[in-house]
């Protein structure tokens, strides 16, 4: 029972974090757009001045923002919904409880895809976010949140211990 409640809590925490991130991004959509422009512009890259990915046109920056915001929203809403489903099934049989973990795992997967895939993979590795003065916060933040999401995903995915009746 303890693992089942803790799994609901892990999903809720991960989901709430993602939801807060996207709500802050939406509330600051202008500065968010400017940050996307900055991070893909190749400026302030003194250590490695050559970046292999091209400077994208404005429409691709908007598309990227929509994808990032959608993944954050999905991670948040599915994480919270998954937490509710897991908590509601805490007393259920193993098969029912396993099925209840579906949405929490999808939500955590969206978070991992966003913060490790898009931020670490595209922004950090592709656009060298790591060397920009304004990129340090998102560089570390995306790694930490991606790690929290992955740890939640792993923990939620683990089978519960069998207890003799």
Describe the 3D structure.
This protein has 165 residues and is mainly α. The chain has one domain (2-42, 54-157). Helix content is 74%, strand content 0%. The chain is built from six helices and no strands. The longest helix is centred in the middle third of the chain and has 31 residues, at 58-88. The chain is elongated, with a radius of gyration of 18 Å. It starts with a helix and ends in an 8-residue tail after the last helix.
N to C succession of SSEs:
HHHHHH
Q: Low-confidence spans: pLDDT under 50, at least 5 residues?
A: none
Shape: elongated
Q: Please, how many domains? A: 1
Number of helices: 6
Output the structural class: mainly alpha
β-strand percent reads under 5%
User: On the 0-100 scale, what is the average pLDDT?
Assistant: 94
Largest sheet: none
Q: Determine the fraction of residues in helical runs and give it as a percent range.
A: over 70%
Ends distance: 13 Å
Radius of gyration: 18 Å
Query: Quick one: how many beta strands?
Result: 0
């Amino acid at each position: 029972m303890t693992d089942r409640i803790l799994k609901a809590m892990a999903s809720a925490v991960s989901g709430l974090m993602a939801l807060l991130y996207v709500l802050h991004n939406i509330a600051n959509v202008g500065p968010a757009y400017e940050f996307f422009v900055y991070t893909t512009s190749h400026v302030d890259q003194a250590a490695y001045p050559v970046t292999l990915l091209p400077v994208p046109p404005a429409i691709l920056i908007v598309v990227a923002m929509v994808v990032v915001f959608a993944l954050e929203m999905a991670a948040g809403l599915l994480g919270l919904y998954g937490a509710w489903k897991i908590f509601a099934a805490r007393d259920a049989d193993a098969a029912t409880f396993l099925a209840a973990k579906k949405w929490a795992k999808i939500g955590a997967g969206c978070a991992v895809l966003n913060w490790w895939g898009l931020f670490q993979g595209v922004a950090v590795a592709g656009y060298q976010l790591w060397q920009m003065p304004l990129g340090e916060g998102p560089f570390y933040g995306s790694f930490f949140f991606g790690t929290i999401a992955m740890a939640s995903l792993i923990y939620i995915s683990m089978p519960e211990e069998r207890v003799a009746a």
